[in-house]
Amino acid sequence: MIEIDHLTKRYGSHTALSDLNLTVEPGQIYGFLGPNGAGKSTTMNIMTGCLAATEGTVRIDGYDIFEEPAKAKALIGYLPEQPPVYPDMTPREYLEFVAQAKDVDRKARGAQLDRAMEVTQIGGVRDRLIKNLSKGYKQRVGIAQALLGDPHVIILDEPTVGLDPIQIIEIRDLIQELGKEHTVILSSHILSEVRAVCGQIMILSKGKLVASDTPDNLEKLFAGATTLELTLKGGEEAARDALAALEGVASLTCRPDEEGRIQVSLETEATDEVSERVFYACAGAGLPILRMDRKKASLEDVFLELTAADGAEQVSQEQADDAQDLPESEPEEEGGEEP
After folding, report:
1. Is 311 in contact with 210 (CB distance < 8 Å)?
2. Percentages helix, strand, coil for the chain, rounded to the nearest 5?
3. Who has the most CB within 10 Å: 60, 114, 171, 325?
4. pLDDT in tens, 249-276
5. Is 47's pLDDT higher than 80?
């Protein structure tokens, strides 16, 4: 569906993308992740033909976005972070304008407009001025324009930014519906949203692709140690005796809490499931388990591990920029304090 080969983008001495290679297969929802400045928006702008590349190629269904832009762009629907809507138009007027700009066939235009409004559920506000709509409805209008022309790929850059929790859920449900008929690429900083919606995740760091897999596989790959948190009823010494010698236990800490219960933190290898052995060991020692929580690597942990250097570099750059902005300190005048 989308093939990106050796894509590089430079702005003067700054390299935003460095020899990026990735493939987007049809029929899935992709999450596009990375810290600020990692190159997500640059990649999206190049994929949609809004920005030229320094080197490399981008093909949409075999059409080169630089050599055959009209054919390639016809296969893509794009919603930038700021919806490109005209506030003094109604949604219906705006969508008609976009359909003309996309050269949608006149005979099919009415049906496409109706379908786009139906899918995005904006029919009830079709004749209201866009400037009077909520941000959630403006996002829906933006998604509706991306659907015109019946594109194969829908690219959404931060589609839920600035929305309230109810609007986020509504847009998330809409994206899942779009994924049934389109390939969707979703950029977002909300990792829980990506985890819930996307079947594949691509993570960028410093302009390079550092991971591409399903959320489950990424979490397993970076799982490392797994921790069991227990609350037991009984004595601290009895808990240590029962659990310390268990197979698969790498480390163990026990401490009594204010209510006389024993709080246990038990670290194991990621591939070793010891919950059952812990249960029987506690039962045999007469230590009732009041709570057992299993903690493993989350998508957030994976993201932080893969982009840690990127974040540190950004902080250092921001500190350097702040230092340049500080006014020079004035020399103190001789003679001490004023009377």
Report:
1. no
2. 40, 25, 35
3. 60
4. 888 899 998 888 999 988 876 555 788 8
5. yes
